[in-house]
Amino acid sequence: MIQDPKRYTITAALPYTNGPIHIGHLAGVYVPSDIYARFLRMQGRDVAFICGSDEHGVAISMKAKKEGITPQEVIDKYHTLIKKSFEDFGISFDNYSRTSAKIHHDTASQFFRTLYDKGDFIEEVTEQLYDAKANQFLADRFVIGTCPKCGNEEAYGDQCERCGSSLNATDLINPKSTITGETPILKSTKHWFLPLDRYDAFLREWILVGHKNDWKPNVYGQVKSWLEDGLKPRAVTRDLDWGIPVPVEGAEGKVLYVWFDAPIGYISSTKEWAQREGKDWEPYWKSEDTKLVHFIGKDNIVFHCVIFPAMLKAEGSYILPDNVPANEFLNLEGNKLSTSKNWAVWLHEYLEDFPEKQDVLRYALTSNAPETKDNDFTWKDFQARNNNELVAIFGNFINRVVVLTNKYYDGIVPQPNDFSEIDEATLTELKAYPAVIASSVERYRFREALGELMNVARLGNKYLADEEPWKVIKDNPERVKTQMYVALQIAGALSVLAEPFLPFTAQKLTRILNTESKFSWDTISENSDLIPAGHKIGEAELLFAKIEDEEIQKQVDKLEATKTANKAENKKAEPQKDLIQYEDFAKMDLRVGTILEAEKMPKANKLLVLKIDTGIDIRTIVSGIAESFSPEEIIGKKVTVLANLAPRNLRGVESQGMILMTTNPEGKLVFVNPDAEAGNGETIN
What we know:
It is built from 21 helices and 26 strands. By secondary structure, it is an alpha+beta fold.
């Protein structure tokens, strides 16, 4: 670990511009990195917080083909939407670039050329998967098949999303082209490979020895597993028509592999920022007194801890990451988040339904962050964290302090009298919190840090509950001045300590307390007089509003609708049964009938006893539809009856036929109805 770095370069994973940003992205990468960057700035640190849109690679080409538009139209659409989502949620990047920018093309090409000229690549003709029907080589994400390690039948050509294994497309069992569905063939093509095996000793020493005690166990463990499997040369070029052209002769029709190109996007984005700000970019990437930290999700660990460091080591002039605090995955209501299946909470849609509640989502995602294991986001938990924590603890304390200060002193902070032991103990405890929160943030334990922030609000609530100034004011108004003064110091501290986690709330609280630029993070630990006597605060405003059940039910219903739509879209018809002859079909006597009576079969949850007019007679049919229909709702309904089915005794009732049913996309039974004009007894041929 770098001790007391001169500057920080913080990178957040470049989001693919093949769809909007959802809560999984926010929880896994962007809120943690923003908390860290905001915290460091509040310490007066030199910070470059860098990100940008990843606009190359197969995911973009797939999206373009699906939507019938060009890749450029795809990236322009989603780059704009993603950038705005980040801005709306207060993700405070110093620069948000895009890999389609000229500065990135130039930087990535130059990086490749440097390694090429040094002889670091292996040039090799290999057999790659080729879709003869589409007349093109298949990049990794255009291939799907069975993972050789865990048996997942929907693994991609570069990675299995079930077990996390990094793959080559040729590793897959029973591969299929996602373009045509055809089984691809092997065809020869030339590519350039980064020989990762050359860097095995370096990576083992740097990570397994050097970062054994400071990297998160999930990151360290995945890298260790990868190294133990044995490193192999990795292709850094692809046969694709979308991306950065490989800048050497004989590479026509080939582009840089997106996982070679994308991390270089951190460097090009830093260059873009430095040019704009009149800075020198190189110290942020090449100086040993710079701390480089990559924030990513667990699916990117290998690329940021093995491949990109090997690239940087090969180039020779760059520093390596001090830490890669990758998070695990966030699930949604028990199911894996999926862009393609629309199983997500999209940030732009969230703000339409919950305007000005960015901090509520930031809070819910941080307090339930998947830091050490996969976690589950549920709307009920979101509601509970808002109502029971933000409203009831944080908001309640601030509201009481501001209301009472305005009520008793017209908003003027009172001059305190002698401090009691409780006052002194409370102010002493308050002074300890900045260091406690800082320690958690510096160790990338953001969930823990947020819990300590809420403990500051709890400290304030307990102080007011114990001291009861609203009662003391009647007999000892001078004592209340001290009580309110102490409470206001806690409120002031919250306005600063909340900033990395809840920036919109901190800004609002600063405005209410009228304390803009009055004090800093370190001041809280050093000074008990944060908001001095005589200072005038503003009127009370609610920091947080209660979220009602109806609002949450609306979100649950939206997800249920998505689930239903996915079932309908993905439902496969049952295979055709064995062939029969016409004579077999002709034996069945299918008739139009009407249900005249219906009642539940005693002691049977699934059975209804029906009286049906078949046109031939009125007969009894027992049907297993009681879990889908009540007796009352089906009386008078037209049905299709198999009239010549041999009678069968069911729980003492003779059933004389069968009615025809099917299921809808939700799996609910529905009647196979004859046309309304057909009369009872009409045969169905």
